């Protein structure tokens, strides 16, 4: 399934067919409307989509505009409806890292790098802590953090606990509000 750009659909059009609804699983409800081909009666908008490879889940809404169907993330629609803008090149981050929680207070605009900084601990992580991995050649724990397209090395450590402390402090400095320890 290819996702489309919400930038192609005017805000006024989206406001005429959808409303933010905290009681809806996706966070959106269709507005009542009747036209040639559609009849919506306050049904919840969107469906849950799961990536077969990663297991990542999100809410997707199919919207017809000018004869073309757009598949859009509900989180982007909600942010756009609430704030009235979406910055080109930015994405929407779920602050609590739950991609199914589209409450407006959980959504924030960010860069792709910031979105990655808020990611959960990877499944293939062997240390059990973000940004800490085993450096085979030295036989020590290494702290490496990525931010804004650059990789920062914070050294090698004999003790895992020391490496964890350094990683937490470095993430606070480099990742700010988007830093996540678990």
Task: Describe what is shown at a glance.
The chain is an alpha+beta fold. It has helices spanning 11-17, 74-83, 112-117, 160-175, and strands at residues 18-20, 28-30, 33-34, 39-40, 47-50, 57-65, 68-73, 91-94, 107-110, 132-135, 140-147, 150-157.
Tell me what you see in this structure.
- By secondary structure, the chain is of the alpha+beta class.
- The protein has two domains: 6-110, Alpha-Beta Complex (Homing Intron 3 (I-Ppo) Encoded Endonuclease, Chain A); 120-178, GCC-box Binding Domain (2-Layer Sandwich), CATH 3.30.730.
- The protein is built from four helices and twelve strands, in the order αβββββββαββαβββα.
- It has helices spanning 11-17, 74-83, 112-117, 160-175; strands at 18-20, 28-30, 33-34, 39-40, 47-50, 57-65, 68-73, 91-94, 107-110, 132-135, 140-147, 150-157.
- A hairpin with a 7-residue loop joins β1 (18-20) and β2.
- It starts with 10 loop residues before the first helix and ends in a 7-residue tail after the last helix.
Q: Which percent range describes the beta-strand content? A: 25-35%
Roughly what percent helix? 10-25%
The top-level CATH class of the largest domain is Alpha Beta
Ranges where pLDDT stays below 50 over 5 or more residues in a row are none
Beta strand count = 12
CA distance, first residue to last residue: 30 Å
Structural class: alpha+beta
Shape: elongated
CATH topology of the largest domain: Homing Intron 3 (I-Ppo) Encoded Endonuclease, Chain A
Q: How many discrete structural domains?
A: 2
> Which radius of gyration do the C-alpha atoms yield?
20 Å
Mean pLDDT: 89
CATH architecture of the largest domain: Alpha-Beta Complex
């Amino acid at each position: 399934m290819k996702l489309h750009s919400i930038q192609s659909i005017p805000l006024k059009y989206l406001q005429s067919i959808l409303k933010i609804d905290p009681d809806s699983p996706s966070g959106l409800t269709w507005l009542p409307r009747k036209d040639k081909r559609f009849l919506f009666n306050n049904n919840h908008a969107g469906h849950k989509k799961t990536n077969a490879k990663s297991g990542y889940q999100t809410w997707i809404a199919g919207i017809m505009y000018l004869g073309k169907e757009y598949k859009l993330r509900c989180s982007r629609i909600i942010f756009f409806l609430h704030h009235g803008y979406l910055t080109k090149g930015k994405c929407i981050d779920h602050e609590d890292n739950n991609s199914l929680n589209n409450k407006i207070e959980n959504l924030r605009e960010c860069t792709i790098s910031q979105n990655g900084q808020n990611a959960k601990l990877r499944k293939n992580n062997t240390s059990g802590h973000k940004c800490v991995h085993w450096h085979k050649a030295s036989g020590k724990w290494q702290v490496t953090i990525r931010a804004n397209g650059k990789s920062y090395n914070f050294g090698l450590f004999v003790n895992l606990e020391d490496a964890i402390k350094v990683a937490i402090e470095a993430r606070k400095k480099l990742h700010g509000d988007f830093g996540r320890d678990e």
